[in-house]
Amino acid sequence: MSTDIPDIVIGRLPIYLRALNQLARQGQEITSSRELGQLLGISSAQIRKDLSHFGGFGKQGTGYHVEILRKKLEQILNVDTEWSIVVVGAGHIGHALAHYGGFVNRGFRVVAVFDNDLDKIGKKIDGFKIQPMEDIDDFIDKHHIKLAMVAVPAEYAQDVANKLIEHGVRGILNYAPITINVPDGIYVQYIDPVAELQHMTFYLSS
Asked: Which terminal residue of the chain, N or C, has fewer Cβ atoms less than 10 Å from its own Cβ?
């Protein structure tokens, strides 16, 4: 697949997939770029342009077959298989991630939780026994883990990322409020509620 596809286009594909999953649950078989646009607040022209990067999926006047397009987007995003994820940090966010059931059936499964707090190690979160950080190297190597979610204080995030990358993790979802430095070929996405709130408050000024 072409590497020239803009990252912003890739970022919209999961949104399209989410809408298609919703339509599939409702039993709908056919949709259109116009309907998807109305559901998502994205222009139909933008949706057609985005999908055109990956070939033709629909016919003019007929629309898209929901199940076919849904399966195709899963293949493009590599979520037609299940990815194992480790959670690093067993604080409030780590607890929420371990409890969250929305990963299952969407291509992901949390398989372990790690922390370096002796008061937390050995305790359970939703069936996961919190494991010590010194065991994470062997776990990642043994289970060929490629994805991790990091929910540690900012001052520890870079060291944690370094350890994960050293043992083969290539994708990190970072909840720590800090930008981490990673080599080329390592992908990081940031979840920072404060930054998102600050984004919104810009538009709320009188």
From this structure: C
